[in-house]
Amino acid sequence: MPTRESESERQMSRIVVYGAAGKAGSRVVTEAAARGHEVTAVARDTSRLGRLPDGVRAVTGDVTDQGSVTDLAKGADALVLTVGGPDPALYTDAVDTAAAAVRALGPAGPRIVHMGGGASLLNTDGVRFFDAPGFPEEFKPYAIGQIRALDAYRSLGDDVTWTYFSPPPVHFAPGARTGAYRTGLDTPVTGPDGQARISYEDYAAALVDEIENPRHLNRRFTAGY
Prior knowledge:
Blueprint: E1 14-18, H1 23-34, E2 38-43, E3 57-60, H2 66-73, E4 78-81, H3 89-105, E5 111-115, H4 140-154, E6 162-166, E7 171-173, E8 182-184, E9 197-199, H5 200-212, E10 219-224
Parallel strand pairs: 1-2, 1-4, 2-3, 4-5, 5-6, 6-10, 7-9
Antiparallel strand pairs: 8-10
């Protein structure tokens, strides 16, 4: 489990969260704000953001709008993408837009932290969960989009810094924040029962930990109990 810095030692970051009205994005906003980071919560409809923590700025924006993303990226340390939907093109459009914004800003551009999918993780046979028998049909459009997003990140050059963070492929739901988790790379982090689990709350904690203490630059990682 990663060690946590004290608040006095932690370097505060400017973090822009797209998809801030969603289950994951809202928790990332709450987690980052609680640690004293300067947070901008972005949603297409800011009325869906609900009550935000003190100091969080609400902005109307779309992760596929190049001008909006570039403007919000100026001065930011991290662009967090927690967006999703049944259109597979959304995910690669988000990658392309964020990468273009980072490139436009040059060395001052922020790092991209992408909430990925678990379907591209490998099972014990070395097969992607997406390719294994029985993968649910209703989740395939989302999984295809996230798999293509991961491929798009891996094809970027060294002028864009990114991290793709996969939750467990199945057991990922709202729950308690414990702050205790373990990380892995391309295979799920499993517990004694052989299952990979994490709450949205601890996923958000792990994501903000990664922003504060980068350990997975230009690669994918995952987390679980």
